[in-house]
Amino acid sequence: MSIVPHDRAPIHALGEPLDRSRRLSRVYPGVLSQIARVRSELATDLSGLVGPLREIGEDIVLCVSEMFANACDHSRSGQDDEGHVIRLLHRPTATSVRVAIVDDGVRTDRSASSEPRISSPRSSGEGFETERGRGLLIIDHLAARWGTRSVLDFPFCSGLGTVTWAEFLLPETAR
After folding, report:
1. Helices 35-50, 55-74: crossing angle, 10 deg rounding
2. Cα→Cα distances 20→12, 23, 59, 102, 145, Å
3. Which of 56, 71, 126, 129 makes an SS bond possible with 103, Cβ 3.0 to 4.6 Å?
4. C-alpha–C-alpha distance, residues 116 and 73, integer Å
5. Are 116 and 74 spatial neighbours (Cβ–Cβ below 8 Å)?
């Protein structure tokens, strides 16, 4: 009997054998000044994984930038000098690409949950001019699907980290 619950199918169990050569991950310091590096390395990794992607590649890079910024801003990744963010990239199927950001967990200086969520709609008086609070709306619009989950699914491990992921369908030319 395994101590790890298996109530979900592994990501790679979608009809294809797991091919580790199609999985790429990188670790970054949890500071916003790393976003340019994250974007550049993601673009390089994407072209190596699926070939040149024009518009969808730009969409993927934009969404990962938003997820990275959220991890730095809302989790322990950006709170401590030693905080980190992990970026994952892989092809779960021949027709899709999935990216994920893993943060270091709940900040100690905030009482609210750090679970990513789309902010409530704004009325005209609530600041259409504001510069923050639209990242997940962008991801929701550009990705085929997205979501979040805890790094570990054990009740006593809540707050240890969040995985925010987004999946994109590849155009016919990249399949």
Report:
1. 140
2. 10, 5, 24, 19, 23
3. 71
4. 11
5. yes
CA proximity to 43, closest of 28, 31, 55, 32: 55
Letter for the amino acid at 63? C
77: nearest Cα among 166, 165, 163: 163
Q: Supply φ then ψ for residue 92, to 5 degrees.
A: -70, -25
Scanning the structure block, which residue is given the tokens 């390089």?
A: 44
CA dihedral for 20, 116, 110, 5, sign (positive or negative): negative
The gap from C-alpha 51 to its chain's centroid, in whole angstroms, comes to 21
Reading the block at residue 167, the tokens are: 């999946």
Rounded Cα gap, residues 68 and 61, in angstroms = 10
pLDDT in tens, 87-138: 999 999 889 999 999 998 887 665 445 555 555 554 555 555 555 567 889 9
At 55 the three-state DSSP class reads helix
Is 0.90 surpassed by the pTM of this model?
no
95 burial via Cβ count (<10 Å: 0-12, 13-18, 19+): middle
